[in-house]
């Protein structure tokens, strides 16, 4: 286990596990955390997992872990690792099963006070329009050919088929479509799981939340995003569903053989990887991108359902009930990007697992309206607590491969949360606090109790303190819909 | 004793499974997985199903076997229970009854290889499986 005395303090918000901590490390580990938050971090195996991640062939710079880090299954959640293209590896385990799990934020000019009488109906309608239970089919069943188009075109498919506006697509990471996706690299099993599930939320920590903008910290950025104090916004948290899970499952299995073929020694079999320029590496990247495009489309379809719910409940009652896209970002992905490392500009594959891209002002891939402020970063908190909108900075570009935190981060196990919290009690408590809750499973609700998570405000203060994101707005919930 | 128990894991689910032999270890792991998912099944009906999975070692076979059961539970809403399971080097085959899922509380995204090792302890085989949820 990594101990506090193994860490080198860089500054108030950064710590390092030096490369000589373990013989098989190829790069050091950089931890973004305050001293106080380190205590929670050191309670589980997240730092040990970060050290394991630091053994991947072809790494450059540091392996980084964000303050919301926690133990995962192989690669730590909150981890960022960049490998040099083309000889470095790509690791399906470092992306995770829920490829392009991510968050979308929709903004509005709907004032909290005016919406108050309708919040319960809004939660009911959103819950009704978006299938969230286990095994439920989505409202947009796809034929094989259509799924292939979704794989290649992502949110652009949704635009062509009337589920998206041009602005939705523009304000999505990569324009909602990552180049280089190839449905031929996706197994028939994954295709069969993908066809019925578009527009479904899934379980676990996925949710749709209606929030109010409680406070604005950066007026210029908030104006660019159309965020107004005391107005409603909607967060959508979901991923690539069974389609992505199956793609990761398939490649983690086939990579068990690939690591032997390429003579790669790993401390954990879930970290399996292959060189990016190998047939295995290329195939995985092409399949992963198909799943990423599926996930962008999935959140887009969900957004169109949320808009329909708002229209059905609020049309004729309020003048302005439209929801506009603020941004949509991934937090489980491997992407080819250019970064400057030790003064040298290079092409790298940035693996972000439970970490968000946070590109600074002027970066390519930002829509014109965000060029000056930087990329919006969406940080959902735990259920019933605050969430944050941040922007990427010049520092994040130089310091963390343009990455920052992705959420509050768990600190209590699911089994412990179930022992300590009853789903029914939690729902009553949230309702009393003015949060309208719709949940498919009370046990599932208990596992996601706020007490099981770190304090999202401390996470945000840490990344803001380290300079790898800037605060724009704090959101508080008024409605939660969970699977 | 069921031969399995849930262990603490910060974000996911970990299941410890133990059994006198490899075949029963696999059967208990499957039973434990469906308990974690909060699955209630109806009467088994229809023809028995055969599953065959391949892999270079026992751990890979275990993951592939559980993956197979997860897939059928999601796509066909059926829980397969092995009545006959045999493991040979590189290959597992199982004959299973199929029962419809009546209720399911939670979803498992996938079975992981994280720290997965089947070892012998006090005359029993034991392993810990981490599921992504």
Tell me what the structure shows:
The complex is a heterodimer of chains A (483) and B (133). With 483 residues, chain A is of the alpha+beta class. Chain A has helices at residues 35-41, 46-53, 112-115, 119-129, 144-153, 155-160, 166-170, 188-194, 219-225, 241-261, 279-314, 394-399, 414-420, 423-432, 442-447, 456-466, and strands at residues 8-11, 14-17, 29-32, 59-73, 75-84, 89-90, 102-111, 207-216, 231-238, 274-275, 324-330, 332-341, 344-353, 356-357, 376-379, 387-391, 403-404, 436-439, 470-482. In chain A, the strands form 4 sheets. In chain A, strands 7, 8, 9, 11, 15, 16, 18 and 19 form an 8-stranded mixed beta sheet that branches. In chain A, strand 1 (8-11) and strand 2 form a beta hairpin. In chain A, helix 5 (144-153) packs across helix 11 (279-314). The longest helix of chain A has 36 residues, at 279-314. Chain A is globular, with a radius of gyration of 21 Å. The mean pLDDT of chain A is 96. With 133 residues, chain B is α+β, with helices and mostly antiparallel strands. Chain B has one domain (4-132): Archease domain (Archease, Possible Chaperone, Chain: A, domain 1, 3-Layer(bab) Sandwich), CATH 3.55.10.10. In chain B, strands 1, 2, 7, 8 and 9 form a 5-stranded antiparallel beta sheet that branches. In chain B, strands 3, 4, 5 and 6 form a 4-stranded antiparallel beta sheet that branches. Chain B is globular, with a radius of gyration of 14 Å. The model of chain B has no long low-confidence stretch (mean pLDDT 94). Classes of the chains: A alpha+beta (483), B alpha+beta (133). Chain A binds chain B through residues 44, 46, 70-74, 77, 93, 96-98, 134-135, 189, 192-193, 202-204, 242, 245-246, 248-249, 252-253, 256-257, 268-270, 272, 410-416, 441, 443-444, 483, and chain B through 6-13, 37-38, 55-56, 59-60, 63-64, 67, 71, 73-75, 77, 101, 104-107, 109-116, 130, 132-133.
